[in-house]
Amino acid sequence: MEEFVEEDFEEERIHPEDPYLQTAREELRQFFAQNRERVFFSRQLEVRFEGQFYHWITNRALRDLAAEGLLRTERKELVKAKGIIHLYWHRRNRYPRRAAANVVALVDSYATYALGETLGLHGEWMIMEGFARNRFVMLGRETNEYLGRKWTDTNHNLYFIFERDGCAYGIEVKNTLGYMDRAVLRIKVAICQYLGLRPVMACRCCPGPGCMTT
């Protein structure tokens, strides 16, 4: 399940001397110094620090600290999610094995399709309520048609079409920790352009400007 399966971020997204990367390394140094007896997995820390850094910044900082020897790391497979997670702990943690096993077991217990469906539906309901409270009118749901035009290049739909003050919006909802696939993002924008809609991507977390190119 993609909530817990970790992503491989592209190295070229950040420069080795990016100031945010330097700050992230220092924040993580302090964090692990205060939590020397604990074991964490990468996505857990990416979310924990997402108020300060993009996920790939935290991910790169963790790998940097592991490369310099401050952190120990281990790759573990998830049975239910059929993916992998990377564990990290402070080098002075004397007994990481049991804690690591507990983390893997806990993550695997939550890596279910039902949980993913619940998160997705929760995101959709938040979007519907938000637009309704601001007096937008829903003109379509799970649709690729608007005003007699129909998108036929692919089998993709838009989650919603809302309208207010004569302007219509095509809405995509992604209430997951992982980023939206770039190819899917381009298709959703193309659908909106073809149908004459303004695209709105309502996502749990998105990369910054310039990170979704190519």
Q: Biggest sheet: strands side by side, in what order?
A: 4-7-8-9
Distance between the first and last residues' Cα: 26 Å
The chain-level structural class is: alpha+beta
Number of helices: 6
Unreliable spans: 210-214
Overall form: elongated
The top level CATH class name of the largest domain: Mainly Alpha
The CATH architecture classification of the largest domain is Orthogonal Bundle
Based on DSSP secondary structure assignment, what is the total number of beta strands?
A: 9
CATH homologous superfamily of the largest domain - what is it?
Winged helix-like DNA-binding domain superfamily/Winged helix DNA-binding domain
Succession of helices and strands: HEHHEEHHEEEEEHE
Query: How many domains is the backbone divided into?
Result: 2
Main sheet record: 4 strands, mixed
Question: What is the CATH topology descriptor of the largest domain?
Answer: Arc Repressor Mutant, subunit A
* Mean pLDDT rating: 85
Helix content: 40-55%
Round the Cα radius of gyration to an integer and report it. Answer: 20 Å
User: Which percent range describes the beta-strand content?
Assistant: 15-25%
Secondary-structure map with pairings?
Blueprint: H1 19-34, E1 39-41, H2 42-48, H3 55-67, E2 71-78, E3 83-90, H4 96-110, H5 113-133, E4 137-143, E5 145-146, E6 149-150, E7 158-164, E8 167-174, H6 182-195, E9 198-203
Parallel strand pairs: 8-9
Antiparallel strand pairs: 1-3, 2-3, 4-7, 5-6, 7-8
Helix pairs in contact: 1-3, 2-3
